[in-house]
Amino acid sequence: MAGNGVFAEIIDGDVFKYYCEGEWKKSTSGKSVPIINPTTRKTQYKVQACTQEEVNKVMEISKAAQKSWAKTPLWKRAELLHKAAAILKEHKAPIAECLVKEIAKPAKDAVTEVVRSGDLISYTAEEGVRILGEGKFLVSDSFPGNERTKYCLTSKIPLGVILAIPPFNYPVNLAVSKIAPALIAGNSLVLKPPTQGAVAALHMVHCFHLAGFPKGLISCVTGKGSEIGDFLTMHPGVNCISFTGGDTGVAISKKAGMVPLQMELGGKDACIVLEDADLDLAAGNIVKGGFSYSGQRCTAVKVVLVMESVADTLVEKVKAKVEKLTVGPPEDNCDITPVVSESSANFIEGLVMDAKQKNATFCQPYKREGNLIWPLLLDNVRPDMRIAWEEPFGPVLPVIRINSVEEGIHHCNASNFGLQGCVFTKDINKAILISDAMETGTVQINSAPARGPDHFPFQGIKDSGIGSQGITNSINMMTKVKTTVINLPTPSYTMG
């Protein structure tokens, strides 16, 4: 299905093309980048290895296309986005197939990602019309010492060329969460998809192509980060960078200069469970939050901080649910599927071995076959273990027993991450006090961490990111305020 039918033009032989100037092209490099299927550990797809010269061409075209697009009526931009959303949802099956083969996402979740992405695009179109269709009117005599001799009109205008870099775990959804706000706001968009997930992203871009967006407005370049990564992020033609990923974002932020940044760089989301919590509710959310998509989510529960008095009961409840999780290939819709790469699996194993050497309690035997790691709950984890602080991005969940709420808050706040956290308690007063004390961008009360719904604000503090996402925040972030001041010859007072 992938690369067939309406998608036939995006592939040449066995190598997928890149997208520039409204056309699917082969790179002059003559080279390709292999995409390894995490399940088979064999090459599944190949994409173009674009050159720096091709990046220069993309930036030049993007800048020119943006000037025309900024003059396109807002309703027309929204109309095209709605059309792209419909086409994306219509072709969810081949795109989902790519997600299954590229990133081992369970089949049902892969379809959900594509449909959710279409819904995000449509909502962005509607929200953009509301936000960008309004301006602000100020008068000068509201500030001391002034008469009403100046009228100030403010509106939002586009930044220019937006560089979007999504991560492997949601290569379609986190791409459109950047693309749609950029386009509705009047920007042009250059997408650099992750290697794992690039083919799904290319299929998604073709849906925008089929919708009839102007040539050059959207571009998608593929290739090795070592060759075009820094060249893209430091390119003088870029006016804004929206990045989701890991440590690479820190390096980008240091090199980007005077360019607005929107970044989400991972988390070590803590789950605090108090004595009065509904332990069945907590256990269900811990398993869902910690093990869905094999824990490869920025907002996954990464550490459980449970009061000692209820720890035994909670661990048994979580353990019972973990043992019911299905393990296997994504095509079979298993709960736990292979992690994205061998290097990821090796990193996770390193954290597990460190915990084993330091006498953590293994609630299940550690088991691994290739990139497939069976779900593992680690009890009696201590702060001197790597797993207490490092983000495994895999199906391994540590439990730390605490003796006070303060101890739990301290552990949460001692982390260099601060994306999300959650607290389980029946006392809303305690929940609010703990939420205020936790140094994270979002705190969920009686639920696992989650990025959505996609119009909610989503942000991290500390090493978890810069700026805020969510549809409304992204539109505002990808625009700047333009002010026009009308100077009157004499003071004016309406109905004076």
TrEMBL record:
The active site is at residue 264. It comes from the Eukaryota. It is an enzyme of class 1 (oxidoreductase). Its EC number is 1.2.1.9. Belongs to the aldehyde dehydrogenase family. InterPro entries: Ald_DH/histidinol_DH (IPR016161), Ald_DH_C (IPR016163), Ald_DH_CS_CYS (IPR016160), Ald_DH_CS_GLU (IPR029510), Ald_DH_N (IPR016162), Aldehyde_DH_dom (IPR015590), ALDH-related_metabolic_enz (IPR051020). PANTHER family: ALDEHYDE DEHYDROGENASE. It comes from Datura stramonium. It catalyses: D-glyceraldehyde 3-phosphate + NADP(+) + H2O = (2R)-3-phosphoglycerate + NADPH + 2 H(+). Keywords: Oxidoreductase. This is NADP-dependent glyceraldehyde-3-phosphate dehydrogenase. Residues 24-483 form the Aldehyde dehydrogenase domain. CDD domains: ALDH_F11_NP-GAPDH (cd07082).
